[in-house]
Amino acid sequence: MRRFAILAMSALLAMTPLAARAEVDEVRIPVGAGGMGFLPLLVMQKQGLVEKHAKAVGLDGLKVSWITFGGPSVVNDALLSGASHFAPAGPPAFLTMWGRTRGAQKVMGAAAMSSMPMYLNTNTDRIKTLDDVSGTDKMAVTAVKVSIPAIVMQMYARAKYGPAETTRFDKYTVSMTHPDAVVALLSRRLEVNLHFTSPPFHQRELKDPGIHNVMNTNDVMGGSTTFTMLYTTQRFHDENPKTYAAVMAALRDAIAFIKADPKGATKIFLTASDGRGWSEDEILAVLASPDIVFTTAPQNVMKYATFMHEVGTLKAKPESWKELFLPDAQNQDGS
Fold this sequence. Notes:
Elements: H1 2-15, E1 26-30, H2 39-47, H3 49-56, E2 63-67, H4 72-81, E3 87-89, H5 91-100, E4 107-115, E5 119-122, E6 139-141, H6 148-161, E7 173-175, H7 178-187, E8 194-197, H8 201-206, E9 212-216, H9 217-221, E10 226-233, H10 234-239, H11 241-260, H12 262-271, H13 280-287, E11 293-294, H14 301-310
Parallel strand pairs: 1-2, 6-7, 6-8
Antiparallel strand pairs: 3-10, 4-10, 4-11, 5-8, 5-9
């Protein structure tokens, strides 16, 4: 009888819908690699927006842990290992994960966060265009091969020099955080003499009269493109619908706040570690740029996917951007 009771209970649990099971009691979210593209996460953290929306759906005790992981490779590893439940990075890092996990953990896009260009800056007068990079030049990027600059430079090289030269500029790249790369470029003491960076680090570097801009990613992508986004696993989405919904609602609130109150958003940025040393006017000027857009709608993500499939770094080619994102995100005007 005891064995029968255990088997009956196991069968009952197996038939219980996922939504009825207990959700996680802690959600772990990295704050990203730094810079303006991750401002929505800083707002979510500072204003307790995930907790607010979790409480509204009955998850009063949900703990929200904000983790200070680094670049795309690190957040990808954290997501796969379970050290985090979401990953914030650019489309190339996400697409790499989407392609590698289609049959197992199944990483899926949750939402875009921002669209903005990245900028290649240098302290070397000789370098006027990307084609001038040669010899012992070293370029700092957040992650070699999978970051936005890495893929964009491959696009440029393939279009100009042909398929055999797709990885022409890979050998000049080194992984480095944006703050460390700014220090390297300004100090001129390290071998790094180029930095493919984002706002507001770009603006900080150009304040030095010895540093100039070489190109930006919009030159290659042909328009506004998703810079940062959030992604997670299908399993986390399915097993934690309320937690997932609370995070997405918090993200929408954060973006609405940034648009409605740039000064308030600036104050939040200045209190974060990335905000040290900036003035309020500097950050307000960055937020006022028409090139910087905060939105949950993906932009030009399929352009990355198509290229990565053509060169073999993405084995499966999605038919549309909607194939890359969870159903909750598909009612938007994306691309």
